[in-house]
Amino acid sequence: MTFGSDWDLGEQLKALDQVADAHGRGLRFEGVIADLFRANRFEVRASPGIARPRQTDLLAVRGSDRYLIECKWRSSKADMDDIDGLRARLRRTFGATGLMISMEGFSGTAISDVSIHRDQPILLMSGAELRSLGMRHSSLLDMLWRKREALLTDGRAIVDEPDQHRRTVQRPALPESPVRFVIGGGEPASTIGFAGHYGQVAFARELHDIDWVPASGNGVTLDVSLPALTEDGILDVLAKLADLGWASPDAYWSIQQTHAVWHGFGAAAFADALPDWSTRAAADEAHDSEEFCYIDRCAGGFYSLTATLPAHEYRWARSVVLSFQFQGIPLDTSPLLQLCHAIGVHDEVYFRPRDEKSVNRIQLPAWTRPIEAVHALVTVPDPILGRDFVSGLVIPNPLRDPRWRDKRQGHDPDLGPLDGLYGLEELEYLICSLSDFHLADDRTYTYRLKYVETARTSEGRIVLPKAHWEYADENEDNQQEAIPLLRA
Known about the structure:
alpha+beta; 23 strands; Trna Endonuclease, Chain: A, domain 1
């Protein structure tokens, strides 16, 4: 059998269904399995001598992965005799994992025996699972990885695993952010919504500058395009990020509709907000889809998770991209490989050099700097003092002023690079971070915008307006009661 670019597993299996000669079908079946592994960049040898004096159908090798493969296409299920035969071959090999592919499935005793004997791991693949690969409902590399992880970690031999089992696995607790929005003295909330538009923009509290290192250069990007996912699948990815140490309480995010945007802090708040699509879609102006942009820090940089989802019950996401920005290529890439494998990505992942600075600072015109109104405070508790501090503000967006549009259209050189601010005029408010925190008390403060910093991932945009504050009356008596300020 010849392997080529037009080779299709589903069509090959349909052709084998029509073969009446059992012996001839078995030989052709081995060829189909060999081509399947070659299509996934394995080196494949038929009837290898690795298990002599016994004969094994195939040996597939890709890097450190070595699979000793037995193929069974017959009218009965593979049983203990088949498992014992493959295990005897494994005893004569070094560092190989057994893989038995049986079109009719496996007996209960065979599955139970494989689950118990993990010292010589054997993976089981049924005909239904093989056909699912032909229909592209799963990938070979992901299926093998999940089967191996379940066997070695949990002592569980996966065969014909139903999709609902994967969805009902209990997710780990997601990191919660202590940051809250307080509107007009009301109850603190983890999310705030206001008028806006699409744009994949999230407001940061601090920006990680990956260029802030002694060496020259602009860092690297690693983009991971995820397979088609449901909303539950996206939350599973977030849970995997948390479980493997890639999610932090410092995350920030936005969900965008055509008429409004919602912003919040922390992975837990995002997981609570994402399923509430019906509330966001209730407005007359709402579109039939929404976008989100989730940003978090990680060792050596930061990343974004972005996607577009339908705003109805059929919550299958498209354009799901995990985009990492690192100060360089990590010497140890094993944590990244572990993460990619855990979320179902096993191939086609590459580092690329960035061609621009990580963080740009934009000085705004003088007339934008006085903050005349505050829509909400952004507060954070101090666990030592037991007091809340104001760490940021939600302010009316000065970029909606016609003077800003005039400045932009005139390409005023004093404004500097404006790409990072594109589309922000659509937002009703900006979420600012204070350079210094102050107590959430009854004193009167005045605020001024200092500048705006922006950063990008491949799919998301990050905006950080910075403001500073002063007491409204520098001579007021209670100023002496102020305690040392926390740094942002």
